């Protein structure tokens, strides 16, 4: 594994800012989360590990004794964004100090991993810098920062698995939630030309089956009805099974589907190369496995796919989609796309547009290629001009928008099972999700939360659907 960004765990005397001591007093914790669902999950777990120290979530950073900025490094100007947010937080920290209250300021996540030293140099008022692999050590870092009166940096890739150190008694952060994320796999060994993840999240690692199942059961006992299994390469999951063997994601999905009360299972993000027969068959066999799959293809051009080191062709992807739809005919797909990868010609871009036309996506995320220092594509010749990237992105997004609208329109006048998750914006309105991840609004009461009810979809709105309940739903 490349270790460019790895540094060791150490306490440094770079800041004179004292931090709040350790104890059981009630303290406010304000969490700012950027980036992917994995970061959302990590933020929830950081909240969990800090709870025994007396930290409880607060909405306003001015009320917080600790602020954690959980960062993302995947695309453009990540570090700039962090420094500008830190500038804002510094003002709050200074104001609170003037009132005699201290604030622990922590930077977590992938920018912390990649640029931890830089952060402490440019923003010495930051107390703690921690990478995504070390948040189970947060309580210890808080204590060390308090003792040392200086900054603490921990961007190790420790030998122990952070998951083994998380609170086991409950999953407090998911209490009251109907839908929850559960990280089962982390890191990536694929080394796509453009991507920083293998450097910031480290090598691929899977949690043991027993620990995943236990966490899922705890979530369900707390009222969760839908679990989204998370991993940078979630379908490369290869966890140690209770039988001592290695379980793939399909086998894990079958075991999860046995948990009473767990109505829906999803997983993301998948790589086309790891979509094996067993997983395709799981989509055929398991009604709980939702018919919506995020399967990024990035490009539809074989030469760009090769340059990206994706390990498959555009036709491989088309064939894979055919097989998935054979197994689960109502399966909808979403994808990520990058335009303007180094070397991308007009023809390459047209090939991407053709692939989109052939597959038909229910949802997609598309990005202009952005240089990530240290990745292979960063130094590649034939970088594409910004104006060309802009034009391509516009054309691509127009096509994808059309497909998304068509897909959402295709469920109008149909009945869909909706899992209700909470109140809508308008009074008397409730919101839930269709199997295809669409937000659906109906008139209804709080009793609906946590239940799956059939809804007649009547209207397509710009980013959601509206409908009405077609029968009384049994209460959860
Ligand atoms: N430039 C643009 N998009 C990127 N992604 C990852 N790295 C880059 C980059 N350097 C996109 C990919 C990936 C998604 C999470 O972010 O499409 O699937
Ligand atoms: Fe990044 Fe590629 Fe790994 Fe996805 S598969 S995390 S894009 S290196």
UniProtKB/TrEMBL annotation:
<dbReference type="InterPro" id="IPR038135">
    <property type="entry name" value="Methylthiotransferase_N_sf"/>
</dbReference>
<dbReference type="InterPro" id="IPR007197">
    <property type="entry name" value="rSAM"/>
</dbReference>
<feature type="binding site">
    <location>
        <position position="72"/>
    </location>
    <ligand>
        <name>[4Fe-4S] cluster 1</name>
    </ligand>
</feature>
<dbReference type="InterPro" id="IPR006638">
    <property type="entry name" value="Elp3/MiaA/NifB-like_rSAM"/>
</dbReference>
<comment type="similarity">
    <text>Belongs to the methylthiotransferase family. MiaB subfamily.</text>
</comment>
<comment type="subunit">
    <text>Monomer.</text>
</comment>
<comment type="function">
    <text>Catalyzes the methylthiolation of N6-(dimethylallyl)adenosine (i(6)A), leading to the formation of 2-methylthio-N6-(dimethylallyl)adenosine (ms(2)i(6)A) at position 37 in tRNAs that read codons beginning with uridine.</text>
</comment>
<feature type="binding site">
    <location>
        <position position="36"/>
    </location>
    <ligand>
        <name>[4Fe-4S] cluster 1</name>
    </ligand>
</feature>
<keyword id="KW-0949">S-adenosyl-L-methionine</keyword>
<keyword id="KW-0479">Metal-binding</keyword>
<dbReference type="Pfam" id="PF04055">
    <property type="entry name" value="Radical_SAM"/>
</dbReference>
<dbReference type="InterPro" id="IPR023404">
    <property type="entry name" value="rSAM_horseshoe"/>
</dbReference>
<feature type="domain" description="TRAM">
    <location>
        <begin position="409"/>
        <end position="471"/>
    </location>
</feature>
<feature type="binding site">
    <location>
        <position position="110"/>
    </location>
    <ligand>
        <name>[4Fe-4S] cluster 1</name>
    </ligand>
</feature>
<keyword id="KW-0411">Iron-sulfur</keyword>
<dbReference type="GO" id="GO:0035597">
    <property type="term" value="F:tRNA-2-methylthio-N(6)-dimethylallyladenosine(37) synthase activity"/>
</dbReference>
<dbReference type="GO" id="GO:0046872">
    <property type="term" value="F:metal ion binding"/>
</dbReference>
<dbReference type="GO" id="GO:0051539">
    <property type="term" value="F:4 iron, 4 sulfur cluster binding"/>
</dbReference>
<dbReference type="InterPro" id="IPR013848">
    <property type="entry name" value="Methylthiotransferase_N"/>
</dbReference>
<protein>
    <recommendedName>
        <fullName>tRNA-2-methylthio-N(6)-dimethylallyladenosine synthase</fullName>
        <ecNumber>2.8.4.3</ecNumber>
    </recommendedName>
</protein>
<feature type="domain" description="MTTase N-terminal">
    <location>
        <begin position="27"/>
        <end position="147"/>
    </location>
</feature>
<keyword id="KW-0004">4Fe-4S</keyword>
<keyword id="KW-0819">tRNA processing</keyword>
<keyword id="KW-0408">Iron</keyword>
<feature type="binding site">
    <location>
        <position position="195"/>
    </location>
    <ligand>
        <name>[4Fe-4S] cluster 2</name>
    </ligand>
</feature>
<feature type="domain" description="Radical SAM core">
    <location>
        <begin position="174"/>
        <end position="406"/>
    </location>
</feature>
<dbReference type="InterPro" id="IPR058240">
    <property type="entry name" value="rSAM_sf"/>
</dbReference>
<feature type="binding site">
    <location>
        <position position="192"/>
    </location>
    <ligand>
        <name>[4Fe-4S] cluster 2</name>
    </ligand>
</feature>
<dbReference type="Pfam" id="PF00919">
    <property type="entry name" value="UPF0004"/>
</dbReference>
<dbReference type="GO" id="GO:0005829">
    <property type="term" value="C:cytosol"/>
</dbReference>
<feature type="binding site">
    <location>
        <position position="188"/>
    </location>
    <ligand>
        <name>[4Fe-4S] cluster 2</name>
    </ligand>
</feature>
<dbReference type="InterPro" id="IPR006463">
    <property type="entry name" value="MiaB_methiolase"/>
</dbReference>
<dbReference type="InterPro" id="IPR002792">
    <property type="entry name" value="TRAM_dom"/>
</dbReference>
<keyword id="KW-0963">Cytoplasm</keyword>
<dbReference type="InterPro" id="IPR020612">
    <property type="entry name" value="Methylthiotransferase_CS"/>
</dbReference>
<keyword id="KW-0808">Transferase</keyword>
<dbReference type="InterPro" id="IPR005839">
    <property type="entry name" value="Methylthiotransferase"/>
</dbReference>
């Amino acid at each position: 594994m490349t270790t460019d960004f790895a540094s060791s765990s150490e306490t440094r005397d770079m800041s004179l800012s004292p931090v709040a001591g350790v104890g059981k007093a009630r303290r406010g914790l304000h969490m700012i989360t950027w980036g992917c669902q994995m970061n959302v999950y990590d933020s929830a777990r950081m909240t969990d590990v800090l709870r025994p120290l007396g930290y409880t979530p607060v909405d306003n950073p001015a009320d917080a004794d600790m602020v954690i900025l959980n960062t993302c490094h995947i695309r453009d100007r990540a570090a700039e964004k962090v420094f500008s947010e830190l500038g804002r937080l510094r003002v709050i920290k200074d104001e609170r100090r003037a009132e005699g209250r201290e604030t622990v300021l922590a930077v977590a996540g992938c920018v912390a991993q990649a640029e931890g030293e830089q952060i402490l140099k440019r923003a010495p008022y930051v107390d703690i810098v921690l990478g995504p692999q070390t948040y189970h050590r947060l309580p210890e870092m808080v204590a060390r920062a308090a003792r040392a009166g200086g900054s603490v940096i921990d961007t190790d890739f420790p030998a122990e698995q952070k998951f083994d150190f998380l609170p086991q008694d409950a999953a407090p952060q998911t209490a009251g939630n109907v839908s929850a994320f559960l990280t089962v796999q982390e890191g990536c060994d694929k080394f796509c030309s453009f991507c920083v993840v293998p450097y910031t999240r480290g090598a691929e690692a899977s949690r043991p089956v027993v620990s995943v199942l236990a966490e899922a059961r705890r979530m369900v006992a707390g009222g969760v009805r839908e679990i989204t299994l998370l991993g940078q390469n979630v379908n490369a999951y290869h966890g140690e099974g209770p039988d001592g063997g290695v379980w793939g994601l399909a086998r894990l999905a079958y075991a999860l589907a046995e948990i009473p009360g767990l109505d829906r299972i999803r997983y993301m993000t998948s790589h086309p190369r790891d979509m094996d027969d067993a997983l395709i068959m799981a989509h055929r066999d398991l009604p709980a496995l939702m018919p919506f799959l995020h399967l990024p293809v990035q490009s539809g051009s074989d030469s760009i796919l090769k340059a990206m080191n994706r390990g498959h062709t555009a036709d491989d992807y088309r064939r894979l989609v055919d097989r998935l739809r054979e197994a689960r005919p109502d399966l909808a797909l979403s994808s990520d796309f990058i335009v303007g990868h180094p070397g991308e010609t007009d023809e390459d871009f047209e090939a991407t547009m053709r692939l989109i036309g052939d597959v038909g996506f229910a949802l997609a995320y598309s990005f202009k290629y952005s240089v990530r220092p240290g990745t292979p594509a960063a130094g590649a010749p034939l970088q594409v001009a910004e104006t060309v990237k802009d034009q391509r992105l516009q054309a691509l997004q127009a096509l994808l928008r059309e497909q998304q609208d068509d897909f959402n329109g295709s469920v109008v006048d149909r009945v869909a099972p909706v899992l209700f998750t909470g109140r809508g914006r308008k009074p008397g309105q409730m919101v839930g999700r269709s199997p295809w991840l669409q937000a659906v609004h109906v008139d209804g009461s709080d009793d609906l939360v946590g239940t799956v009810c059939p809804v007649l979809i009547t209207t397509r709105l710009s980013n959601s659907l509206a409908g009405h309940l077609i029968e009384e739903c049994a209460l959860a």
